[in-house]
# Entry
Amino acid sequence: MTDRPDAIEAFADHVVSTPFDAIPAEAIAAAKVFLLDSLGVGLAGTRAPYVDEWIAGYRAATPGSGGRIWGIGGSLPTPAAAAVNGFLIHNSEFDCVHEAAVLHPMATLLPAVLAEAEARAGRGAAIDGRALLRALVLGVDVSTSIGNAVTTGLKFFRPATAGGFGGVAAIAAVAGFDQRRLLDAFGLYYAQAGGTMQAHTEGLALLAMQAGFCSRNAVVAALMAEQGIAGTRGTLEGPFGFLRVMEDGYDRDALVDGLGKIWRITEVAHKPFPSGRATHGLIDAVSGLQGEHGFTADAVERIDASVPPLTQRLIGRPVADGMKANYARLSGPYTAARMLVAGKLDLDDFSDAALADAATLDLGARVSVTVDKNPDPNAFAPVSVAIVLKDGRRLERTVGTVYGNPAKPMAREAHLAKFRRNFAHARGNLLPENADKLISLIDQLESLNDVRVLLDMMVAA
# Structure
C-alpha cells in the first residue's frame, strides 16, 4: 500500500475538468461512428431471444414510464430502460469492442446516458449533442482505461463490471457533477457492480443481460449520489477495491497515465460480424483464404486454428446439435464453418435453420481451435489458421490485426451498410427513411439541441 490517492480520483478529475473543446477531432469523429453503430445493433437486438421476457420482467418489477425502449416502443422507469436497452445492444454480439481492454464500452454506457438524458430533458434540462459527445468520449476513457490496465485474464465479466464505471462517468458529464459527487457515484456503482463469466461459459443470454444490469446500476448510482449518499473512496485500489477483487493484477501507470493524452474511443474496434470478437480473427483468416484460393466449403478436409489463450477460452467451444444462438455466436468452429458454407456471416446465420444446417455442422466438427504460446492473457491475436483441402493442399494465413480494428478499419460505406441492415432488422414499425435521418443527425450532432430527437427516430411510428 502507498499514500498515493486512489486512481478513481484521477478518473473523476478527468471527467469533471475536460471541456468539449479539449477533445480532439478524431475522438469526436469516433464517438459519432460508434454512437450510430451502437444504436443500430441495439435495434437489431430487438429480435434476439428473451427480449419480450426481459421487458416483461422489468415491467413487473418496476412499473411506470420514463425512458423509451429502442425499436419496440413503450417506456420504463429510467434505470429499467437502461437495463433493457443495454441488453439490446449486446445480445447479438455485434457491438463495438476495445480489444486491449476486452470490453464493449458502449453496451453499458450509451443506454445509461440516453435514458438519463430523456429523464433530465423531461425535467426541463435538455442534453445537447455536444454534451452527449463529450460524455461518450469521457465515459469510454474511464471504462477502457480500467480494462486496459489489467494484466490478468477475465475473472468477472469485464464489459459489464468495468463498463458500468463508464456509464457513471457519462451521466456525470451530462449532469455536471463536481468531483465529490462523481466520486460518490463511482463508489455507489461499485457496490452494485457484478457480472460472471459463468454465463459466457454456458452460452447464456444472461451474458448480455449483465451489461443491462450494470447500465441500470450506473443510473441508480448517479441518482443516489445526487441525493447526497456517500460512496467509497478506495473504489479501484483500496484493499477491497475493484482492481483487487474483480481483477487480479493491473499496471498502475497504464491505468492513469494516458488520461487526456490517449483518447480511448479512437482505439475502439468495429465488429463486422455478429459474433464474439474473439471469433473474428478466425473468420477473417478463413474468408481471406477462400477469397484468395477460390475453394468451396465441401472441398475442405479440416481447419486448424492456433490462437492466444484468451481467444481459445472464449471461442474454443465445439459445434453441437441443438445449440442456441448465444452459444454459437461464441463458437469459433461454428462461425468459421458458417462463413465458408454461406459465404458470409450475418444476423440470419444464427437463425434456427442456420444453426441446424447439416453442412455447417459437419464442417464445424472438423475445426480445431488450440492454444498457442502467446503470453498475453488478454490478447485476441495473432491468429494462425491452416485449411487442409481434400486434394491435399494446405493453405495457411496468420491474422495479426483483425478487420474492424482501427488499424484495419471498416470503411464508412461498410459501417453505414451495417447500420442500415441493423435498422431494417428491428422489430418495431420504424419508418425506413429514419435510418438516413439518424445518419444525418449524428453527422451533425454538435448542432443538435436535444438528443431525444435521436430516440424519436428509433420508435414505431
Remarks:
- The two ends are 57 Å apart (CA to CA).
